[in-house]
Amino acid sequence: MASKKDYYETLGVSKTATDAEIKSAFRKLAKQYHPDVNKDPGAEEKFKEIGEAYAVLSDPDKRKAYDQFGSAAFDGSAGGGYGGFGGFDPGDIDLGSIFDDLFGGSSFFSGFGGARGSKARAQKGADSLVKVNLTFEEAVYGCEKAIDIDLTCECETCHGKGGHGEKRCNTCGGSGRVVTQQRTMFGVFQSQTTCPDCGGAGVTFEETCRDCRGKGVVTKNKEIEIKIPAGVDNGYQLRISGKGSAGINGGRNGDIYFEFRVKEHPLFKRDEDDINIEVPITITEAIFGTKKEIPSLDGNVVLNIEAGSQSGDKLRLKGRGVANPNSGRKGDMYVTLKVITPTRLDRKQKDLLKELADTELDNSSEFKTFKKYL
User: Fold this and answer.
1) Beta-carbon neighbour count of residue 32 at 10 Å?
2) 292 vs 180: CA distance, rounded Å
């Protein structure tokens, strides 16, 4: 069926035009023929034709019907189930995205509809971050602590409303939003903002609450009991859900994040879930080997040091590390031997060492390799 109106011709695009090409053509023509910009006779009518064409061609279903039946698909004279469109209706299409591109997205075009105002939405309360200092032992074995923290809480006097004698806001009529209009070269624009008198709540009060000064919340110091799991480390965060500051407009409370800072231990050095310790041994213990009692996180253990051990040798004790706070699996303990050379000797010790020095002690492969290059 022949078309009564050629929407493609109206926008100046081909029948194979893409959605992007149709949008671009409409944007250009809308700016050119808007009545506030173009005062030529017929500009307003042309502008309406452009809008009608775009309303059809930008909608996949309507465009398909138009390609099959022409504009008759929208005046009730064609079959196929599309006879009920009844011509161009500005409400059938949301032009907000088009004019967002053109004018920054803060307003909508008058005459083409837009978002309706609504009361302020419920918002989750602010989250809090608290730094907690722990000793090495508290972090490794876990503990319980009572932490003082300042939080915003719902005002008990006004039950979080901010005042007494509630009534509908006269400024916004209870919607929580106010609409302003501005005339520009591109037409009349409407912008919506939060009502300055009720803050988006839609209601005002005859009397402002003295305790919270209309905020609905007050700051209070609270003591929060927390159970710190074994194995936390520097920077580890523990979240306590719903115990933070009060929500806004009925929103849920925020969360509290406890971040731990762990004091260093004079003996143990931590590497994630592993523990490192440096154990001093004498020259004779290194030469002859020995069994040496050393400390660990689980109490003292006996370490077997083999004969001929060298300074820097590292021994591993499996499962003697820190328990992971998430999995509970324990890391390992690594023992680094450090042979200590004595600096204060009595006469008998000196005589024994001189006697030992007269023997051939430099017969190892390391000494032989070194001497080769002398």
Assistant:
1) 13
2) 84
Q: Which residues pair with 290 in a beta bridge?
A: 305
Residues 6+ apart with CB under 8 A from 177: 117, 118, 119, 192, 193, 194, 195, 200
> Cα dist. 127→224, 226, 244 in Å?
14, 16, 6
Q: Tokens 């006269």 — which residue?
A: 170
Return the structure tokens found at 62.
């309507």
- Beta strand segments in 285-367, E: 290-294, 301-305, 314-317, 333-339
CA neighbor of 98 nearest in space, from 83, 88, 113:
113
Q: Can you tell me the distance from the alpha carbon of 136 to that of 232, in angstroms, rounded to the nearest whole number?
A: 10
First to last CA, the chain: 105
pTM: 0.53
Overall residue count recorded for the chain in this entry: 374
142: left (phi over 0), alpha (psi -120 to 50) or beta: left
Query: Rounded CA gap, 217 and 156, in Å?
Result: 8
163 close to 214: Cβ distance less than 8 angstroms: yes
Residue 217 pairs in a beta bridge with 154
Axis crossing angle, helix 96-103 with helix 19-33, rounded to the nearest 10:
70
Q: How many CA within 13 A on the CB side of residue 188? A: 8
The H or E element spanning position 206 is: strand 203-208
List the one residue out of 268, 329, 278, 320 whose CA is nearest residue 299: 320
Amino acid at residue number 212:
C
Residue found under tokens 């007050």: 218
Tokens 């492969």 found at: 365
CA distance 149 to 236: 19
Q: Are 68 and 75 in contact (CB under 8 A)?
A: no
What are the tens digits of pLDDT across the range 140-186?
898 988 888 888 888 888 877 788 888 888 888 888 888 877 766 55
Tens digit of each residue's pLDDT (9 = 90 or more) over 336-351: 999 888 888 888 888 8
